Amino acid sequence: MTTTFMQLIEMSKTWLKDDVYPLWITQGIDQSHGGFIESLTFNKEPMEVPRRAMVQSRQIYSVLTGAKLGCLKKDLAVETAERAANYLMDFFSASNGGFIYSINPDGSPKSINEDLYTQAFALFGLAQAYSVTKKDKYKLRALELLTYLNTHRKTGHGGFTEVDEQGQISYKSNPHMHLLESAIAWMQIDEDMAWKELGSELMNLAVSKLIDPKTHVLGEYFDSEWNPIVENGQFIYEPGHQYEWAWLMSLYEDLTGQNLKSIRHQLFQTAEKYGTSPIRKIAFDEMWSNHAPKLQSSRFWPQCERIKAAVRLGNEVPSSERSSYVQAADEAMVTLFRFFETPIKGLWFDQLSEQDKFSGNSAKASSLYHIVNAMEEYINLRGNLTEQL
User: Fold this and answer.
1) 313 with 325: CB under 8 angstroms?
2) Which of 188, 190, 180 is nearest to 158 (CA)?
3) Could you tell me the domains of the chain?
4) Per the confidence metrics, is the pTM higher than 0.90?
5) What is the pLDDT of residues 307-335, one digit of tens each?
């Protein structure tokens, strides 16, 4: 029996309100030391592992979005988000203006690496906190972080450097995508030109360097001049990131008026044509640039990004051309719910193997940001696409 989009919307709201937030707002927060925990076992036990700055920022977004959707009390969400933002600044801040990667549960530093991915999400989390409190300390800390990036992490060819624990420099598209997400989040709530300049630099990098002019896909790994790193004549791309960039470009176009429609829809359609399995109804994890699958496994998050891109971009095309977007959105949402079939409601599996098997015994807190974002877009936008799967 086919599940209608209205049923999927109600299933999403019920799952979030009854199962997810009651669990994660209690078991997912360290009541002794503060901050969000990293993972819950399938017995609802917090895992004693290092805590990443990225998780704190993502969970700030998750609780605030839960309130927007009516699945969590607003006062509780704002209080939790503000406490987490203070925790982020107090325990993860580096003296140079950046943020360190992780701390131990007791608050002592674990990894002091200032990877670009962490900086992107710190900027994002601060934007979320500022959006509901309008407290200057969050904006000032975000501007301090931006100064650090512009002073210490510029590449000379656009964008910023990535750095690992050993101090090795690399060049990756993924953290730039999340920096763009953060710039957009700030542009939506604050008129400071700093955010517009950051967004413009990142968008220009994506359009002029990150998207390959021959294959029209956006790669993952690059050299210092933003040429894709190839192996046996091919480079790696991820269908999930094609969807995610397409979605972010739509938000950016709404804010700036820059015409990115053809680029966005091409990224989406390429991911649909080559990066999904119509039989298994999933989006693959990784592809080669000749469109051969590199990994035929499927994590939960590419399904989330497929949902977001499909419903937002689908609303831009005439009703007569929407069927492929409708099918993608509904199919991905049905697939996503498969990941929630865990022993305890409100948790999720991380990855579906090539053999269509789930494994694991814990759920990562970092996943909720992807899931909530996809459900928010589906709940708010799917009804405008009148056709059903």
Assistant:
1) yes
2) 180
3) 5-384 (1.50.10.10)
4) yes
5) 999 999 999 999 999 999 999 999 999 99
